[in-house]
Amino acid sequence: MEPRFNLLDSPTAAKAAKRFYSASLALRESTLPRSLQELVSLRASQINGCGWCVDIHVKEATDIGETPLRLHLVAAWRHSTVFTEAERAALAFTEEATRLAGGQGVSDATWEAVRKHFDDDALGTLVYVIAMINASNRMSMAVNMQGGTYERGMFGALE
Question: What is residue 120's predicted lDDT score, i.e. its pLDDT?
Answer without folding.
Answer: 97
